[in-house]
Amino acid sequence: MPLFTLEPAGESRFAFTVPRSICVGPAGREFLFGGAGLGLGIAALEAVTGRPTVWAAAQYLSYARPETRLALEVTVPVAGNHTSQARVVARDGTREIFTVNAALGGRPHESAGQWATMPDVSRPLDCPAVVHNWPRTGSDMHANFDEHVAAGRFGVARTAGGPSDDGIARLWVRPRGDFGFDRPHLAVVADFLPSGLGNALGANAGGNSLDNTIRFGRWQATEWVLLDIRIHAVVDGFAHGRLHLFAEDGTLLATASQSMILRLH
Predict the structure, then answer these.
(1) 17: Cβ contacts below 8 Å, ≥ 6 apart
(2) Which domains are delineated in the chain?
(3) What is the pTM of this model?
């Protein structure tokens, strides 16, 4: 089963009750994981347009707690021969939780290429598993994935050695359970980017996403995805970074970027 399933609620409308399993945060203060919001938006947009996502950008406006009943409304201002421009707004009553804007479609063309290359790292099961050291319930979003450290510092190791020289960390991720990767689920793990902040700063740090943009490359089925995380800058209490998502065979599945509120735990 996928991490989330939308309920049809009328033309271009969906409903969704937030389960604790796709939330993060300490017990009693959990909230919907930002990447899950982006994934929900992509799922809704693709369902309405019938087209695959080219890019999607989420802006996170407020928190949705477990058991919150969200209403998602899709608007498609432009639907061309090959491309749709659309957006979805998720609300809890009158309160906006997140907005996702996107372009969807595909244009047949002979030209193709990939210039981003997957870094040389060990295979997933040859890398150590992440041991998280922030407050969590044990049944949150991260429980849905196996996470293995390919480079850099995650979890209990990220305070060792001071700040990183290059801000680079790499993480293998694989779904647990009965779901695999698709565009919505790639959007979920793209929001693991804030986990690279601790490696960059050499501190027990993370972040709350202000936004998240994902751009999809060529699709390739894969069991594991490598997250190549690069923190670009931390300034004035905010952080900025990007990550590439690679299939096991080196195919660039997507590239993502975001800005975050810096949190020192």
Answers:
(1) 67, 68, 69, 70
(2) 7-105 (2.40.160.210), 124-264 (3.10.129.10)
(3) 0.94
